[in-house]
Amino acid sequence: SKKAEEEAIRRSKALENDGLDTLRKVSRQEYLKKREQKKLDELKDDIEDEQYLFQGVKLTEAEYREQRYKKEIYELVKKRTEESDYTNEYRMPDAYDVEGGVNQEKRFAVAMQRYRDPAAEEKMNPFAEQEAWEEHQIGKATLKFGSKDKKQKYDDYEFVFEDQIEFIKAAVMDGVNVEQELSVQSPTASSAKTAFEKLQSDRKTLPVYPYREELLRAVNDHQILVIVGETGSGKTTQIPQYLHEAGYTSRGKIGCTQPRRVAAMSVAARVSQEMGVKLGHEVGYSIRFEDCTSEKTILKYMTDGMLLREFLGEPDLASYSVVMVDEAHERTLSTDILFGLVKVRFCSSLLCSKLMLQESSSLLNIRLLVSYFVGKDIARFRPDLKLLISSATLDAEKFSDYFDSAPIFKIPGRRFPVDIHYTKAPEADYLDAAIVTALQIHVTQPPGDGDILIFLTGQEEIETAEETLKHRTRGLGTKIAELIICPIYANLPTELQAKIFEPTPEGARKVVLATNIAETSLTIDGIKYVIDPGFVKMKSYNPRTGMESLLVTPISKASANQRAGRSGRTGPGKCFRLYTAYNYYNDLDDNTVPEIQRTNLANVVLSLKSLGINDLLNFDFMDPPPSEALLKALELLYALSALNKHGELTKVGRRMAEFPLDPMLSKMIVASDKYQCSDEVISIAAMLSIGNSIFYRPKDKQVHADNARLNFHMGNVGDHMALLKVYSSWKDTNFSTQWCYENYIQVRSMKRARDIRDQLEGLLERVEIELTANPNDLDAIKKAITSGFFPHSAKLQKNGSYRTVKHPQTVHIHPSSGLAQVLPRWVVYHELVLTTKEYMRQVTELKPEWLVEIAPHYYQLKD
Ligand code: ADP
Ligand code: MG
Hints:
alpha/beta; eight-stranded mixed sheet; seven-stranded mixed sheet; 35 helices; 24 strands; 46% helix; binds adenosine-5'-diphosphate; binds magnesium ion
């Protein structure tokens, strides 16, 4: 039992460290330093207190006592806010790692409840009583001290928010075309308009509206057009409608890509309202594993990844008359690849004339051209397809250059001047600083004055901020105006996403807590204050180890300026940067590195190969990926037998490309054919695709939850099998919600897994793999898993860590794994996550001889 105890300690240590990513670790040192400093300051405070001094003014003893009392109350509120780790309430050990939510089920339930019945929250709040008391106490304090006092200096707010953050106003971002704005913005005519009429008149106030005819002419005259306009000018919502009104939809759909799921859904919803149709009919959206379109759909908003997949099935995009690649400045992987494909496929005329003109229009080039046109591609050449590339940043020349000097259409934007403020000193804890700043703004500025937008890095952080804001403002009772908190991130239920767009009621203020999605994809009207901590969660990839992870990273200057710009949409704005001017000028990159240069390319390479694009090293990328990363991808696909020695797609590869999954998962599915267990394997794949939001663990029932979880791990079958067991047990209960509650499983995640599984089942049919069940042959299932994941195998070391087999590095089993205590000699893992250590997540035991059997070209037996 001593061993068990040690183990428990080791685990809890690991968990404790787990939440700190590398970046925060650095700032933690700063944090500690700052805390020291703060203690000293407090000491100084107390000395001053003895002389009844407050902020340099001498108080009477009575006044001093009042202040003291209020301070105590405030400290109490603050302390409770800090101590009650309500944010940990439903947190699994690995909650920090992924943006995808943990315990969503519960959170969603609470969120929905709040949304439907705000009053109900009070009933659910376990602190309600205590809070009421505190509110009362604070109220008393104010009453006694407050209004009668002549010295404005003792402003409640100033005192309450004594841990203020000091800012320096350092710059002004100039306004553009503000006069125009003022003259255009006024048609708030007759009051008795219907909502629909109002929408129609609102459309006419958007900056793009005056350019409607000119824009349509430009689209008519050119095959490719680059469109540039400030965020919020109406590019995404209006241009597809204009094109529809001008008749482009009579010969095909209009597709508009977005880098993010939420943007695609939200914009589609808005446009369907504006057109007065039901979402999913004429206007729809399509995101991975969710298709909300129909036969009728003519305006289709989709993620860029979905258009890329459609390319695979329909390489001439025959059903489209216009493709608008929106938010091009984001330079997501899919956008970049789409660019390359579109250029090769549809811009052959440009390519042709360019080649002819080149001084080196040698015989070789001509021959290339001939073969190009005589080859299969000529059938796909579509001069009638319009391509619009729209971007919110002004450096559109790059896009234009890439598409052989395509014309640039600039929509003159409008933006009011924005004051930029920097902090005096770096902030140790940007989340806390953001909250303090928001409260500072809220209590010192009149509420009707404008809303607040805070940029955070992910769901977890947003939820923490939401809770903290609630607790802090609740402690302040009615002393401050109502603060409406609106979170927005990728996994927020659709019903709640609309909330950010609702107008702020009079006398209240909205604070929007958003991920990068609000940087350019979504425009929220009425924002006057932007709080920018300067971080974003970004993918990074190490081509040497093949390791990909999500890291909180400083943003670029370009991003910082976009964020600031969000505050000047409807009036002069203010942007509070939670970093110093020195940081801005010296530490931030000018531009964000395009995703293609910092990601695993295996998936893309497989897609391109299946489109017949073989010479990837010479593919015309806008910014080529590091050749190391390309080679790594080719190497992996070869190892998975998706490519042959000559780099050509094999039959296995062709089948794999059908699945909208990472190649290793696709390979696992394709291999399940051989081991006759496709039924089980697609369930596992679906469950793995959900991420880490299957199990939940309420704070007051941790032991129950852990026991329920252990049930699925019985016999140390490994995490993949445990996931399978969860799925099959749920299925056996006829997908019962009650069963999920009893077993601490999140029903929402399970439903999503079921949807994904259904789609995978459909795809099996397409690649002619029979659905066969083989539930009792664990080895067969494990072999199928190994067939996809053999590059992820690791061997136990003497000290309890593991060593990856192919590119040796030290890794550990994640504490949340069912095998964390078992430590099998050989394992295969689903993914690596980097927190304080490199952890393997979702681990299954394997027999080493399988490696040689399954991947003899990859692994050889020593001795
Ligand atoms: P752009 O693409 O140029 O950034 P949009 O077309 O997205 O501009 O936005 C134009 C206007 O439509 C903005 O004022 C924005 O507030 C409004 N809008 C966009 N989406 C929604 C939505 N889902 N709900 C309410 N208003 C929206
Ligand atoms: Mg847009």
